[in-house]
Amino acid sequence: SKEIGRNSFQLYKASMNARSLERLSMLSRFQYALEHDEFELYFQPLQCLASGRISSVECLLRWNDPNLGMISPAQFIPLAEELGLIIKLDQWVINKACESMALWRRQGSDIRRIAINVSAQHLCQGDLAITVANSLSKHCLDGRFIELELTESSFISNLHEAKSELQKLKSLGVSIALDDFGTGYSALSYLTKLPIDTLKIDASFVAKIPDEYGNSEIVSAIIAMAKALNLQVVAEGVEKSEQRQFLQKLGCNIVQGYLFCKPLSADDWLRFYHAEKAT
Ligand code: C2E
Ligand code: CA
Ligand code: CA
Ligand code: CA
C-alpha cells in the first residue's frame, strides 16, 4: 500500500507539473494573443418584444488561436481571472466595443447601445470608470451608447466601493445591467442599493419555461419585481417560440437568444442589422 501511495503521489506531482506548465504556456500565449489580435468580438442582438426591432447588441469575446482554433470564453475567462489578466482583457474589450460602436454611428447606423461584459474582479480592483471614460473620449463616443453587464459577484467584496464606481459610470451616461440574474449570490437588496438599469434573467430559468414546476412562477415574479422597480428586463437564452410567447405574456420587454439571432462576426452582424432594418 506504501507503493500505491507513492505511485499516486508521483501521478499527482506529474499532473501538478503539467498543470503549472499549462498555466505558464497559457500565460504567454494569452499575452501573445492580446498583442497579435487573436481576440475578436462577436455580436448578438437583443430584440424588443413590443416592436420586434433590435434594441441593442451584446459583444461576446472570442479567442481564435491559430493552433487550437476557437476557444470559448467559458474556458479562458476563468483562466484569465486566475492569472490576473482579466482587467487587461476587459480593457481590450471595452476599447474595441467603443471603437466598433463609434464606427457604426459614423456609418450612419442607429444602433442604440452596445453591451459589454465586465469581469466581477474589475469593478473594485481596477479603475473601471476611468477605463470607460478613456475609451469613450478616445473614440468620441457618448456614454449613453454603452451598457456594462456585471454579475452580482461584483458587489460582494465591497458594496460601498462598487456603488461609488457605478455612480461614476452613471455620470458618464453609461447604463448598468445585472447579468445572470437569479443565479449565484442573489441578494435582492442590490437592486435598490445600486444604480441598476437592466436585469438579465439567466438562461437557466428560460430553458425550463414553461414546463418545469415552479419555474414559470419564479420567472413571472422576477419580471413583476423588475417592472415594479422600473428596471428593464431581458430574458437570456430564448431558443423556442413558446418561451418567447410566455415571456411576452408576462410583460418581459426584451429577449436575447438563438431564436432571434446567434452571436455573429462583425460583418455578419452588420448584414443582419441592415436586413432587419429593411423589413
Ligand atoms: P453571458 O454574458 O451570460 O453571455 C451569454 C452566453 O450565452 C454567450 O456565450 C452566448 O453566446 C450564449 N447564448 C446566447 N444565446 C443563446 C441561446 O439561445 N442558447 C444558448 N444555449 N446559449 C446562448 P459565450 O459567448 O460563450 O460567453 C460565455 C460567457 O463568457 C458570457 O456569458 C460571459 O459571462 C463571458 N464573456 C463573454 N465575453 C466576455 C467579455 O468580453 N468579457 C468578459 N469579462 N466576459 C465575457
Ligand atoms: Ca452578458
Ligand atoms: Ca448572462
Ligand atoms: Ca455568464
Write down the secondary-structure element order.
HEEEHHEHHEHHEHEHHEHEH
Q: Would you tell me the overall average pLDDT? A: 90
Major β-sheet, in short? 8 strands, mixed, barrel
Biggest sheet: strand arrangement: 1-2-4-5-6-7-8-9
* Terminal Cα span: 73 Å
Oligomer: single chain
Number of strands: 9
Catalogue the unreliable spans.
none
Which kinds of small molecule does this entry bind, naming each only once? ligand C2E, calcium ion
| Approximate shape | globular
Radius of gyration: 21 Å
Q: Please, how many helices?
A: 12
What percent of the residues sit in helical stretches (DSSP H or I)?
Answer: 40-55%
**Percentage beta strand:** 15-25%
Tell me the structural class.
Answer: alpha/beta
Explain this structure.
- This protein has 279 residues and is α/β, with parallel strands linked by helices.
- The chain has twelve helices and nine strands.
- The chain is globular and about 50 Å long.
- The relative contact order is 0.11.
- One calcium ion is lined by residues 179-180.
Entry summary:
It comes from Pseudoalteromonas byunsanensis. With 279 residues, the chain is of the alpha/beta class.
Task: From the structure above, extract its key features.
single chain; 279 residues; alpha/beta; eight-stranded mixed beta barrel; 12 helices; 18% strand; globular; binds ligand C2E; binds calcium ion; cyclic-guanylate-specific phosphodiesterase
